[in-house]
Description:
Low-confidence stretches: none
Family: Belongs to the ABC transporter superfamily.
Domain ABC transporter: 4-227
Pfam family, one: ABC_tran
Helix content: 25-40%
InterPro entries: AAA+_ATPase, ABC_transporter-like_ATP-bd, ABC_transporter-like_CS, ABC_transporter_ATP-bind, P-loop_NTPase
Bound molecules: adenosine-5'-triphosphate
Number of strands: 11
Strand content: 15-25%
Keywords: ATP-binding, Nucleotide-binding, Transport
Largest sheet: 6 strands, mixed
Amino acid sequence: MMNVHIAEKRYPNASVPIIKDLRFALNSGEFVAIVGPSGAGKSSLLNLIAGIDCKFEGSIRDQRTSLTPLNVGMMFQEARLMPWLTLLENVCLVSESQKSTLTIQRAHTLLNDVGLAGLADQYPNQLSGGMQRRVALARALMAEPDIMLLDEPLVSLDQPAAAELRELLLSVWQARQFTVVYVTHQLDEAVALADRILFLSTSPARVIREEIIELPRPRRRQDIDALNIDLADRVDLLNGRMA
Length: 243
Ligand SMILES: Nc1ncnc2c1ncn2[C@@H]1O[C@H](COP(=O)(O)OP(=O)(O)OP(=O)(O)O)[C@@H](O)[C@H]1O
C-alpha cells in the first residue's frame, strides 16, 4: 500500500498552490482512476508520485517492508517516441543495458505482448497513433513496474484505436497485477476501467469524492453507461465540485 499526502505543491513564482491537502491511499494491484477538471493539477500529481518532481510539502510513502524502491512505469498523452530510433530501440532505451541480449529479447517479447510482433525494425512515423501508444506501453513495461502512471493515454485516438488500447491496458494490468493510477477527463473511461475513482476539485486540487466501482469484469457497456450517468449526476466534473 502507498499513502499519498500532498500538503502543498506550488510552482515557483506562482501566487497560489496547484495542489493542497490532497490525500489518498493506493492498495497494491489496484486500478485507481483520477478524474478532475482541466488544469486541476492531475499531471503535476503524477509527476510527484513518479518522483520526477520532488518539490512539495507532504509525503508519498510505500508501506512495503522491502527496502527495494518501487519501479515506476509511465505513459503520457503522447507516445513520446524517438523518431530516429526503431521500435525495438525505443523500447530498449529505458533499460540500463540497452544492447544486452537479455534486454533485446525482453523488448521483443513486450512488443509481441502489445500486438506489434514483427514490427521491431520499423520507425515510429511508419505507425498509426494507436500503434505508437502501444510502443509507449511496451517501453513502460520494460521497467517491470510495481506502479504504472497513465496520463490520459487514450486522448486524441479515434474510437476503435482507443477501445483497443483500453482492452490492451486492462489485459496487461490483469496479467501483471501492478498498481495503476490512471488520469482522465472521461468519466466513462474511468468507470470502464477502474476499481476506484478519485474525483478532484479545481486547483488547488484535493480529493472531493471517492467512488468504488463494484461492476464485475469484464464490464458490460450498458452497466458502464448507467453508472456513468448516475455519477455524472452527482459530481460536477467541469467545475470540480459536488453537483
Ligand atoms: N513546470 C511548471 N511550472 C509552472 N507551472 C506549471 C508547471 N507545470 C504545470 N504548471 C501549471 O499547473 C497547472 C496544472 O497543470 P497540470 O498539467 O498538472 O494540470 P492537469 O489537471 O493535468 O491539466 P489538463 O487536464 O489540462 O491536462 C497549469 O495551470 C499549469 O500551467
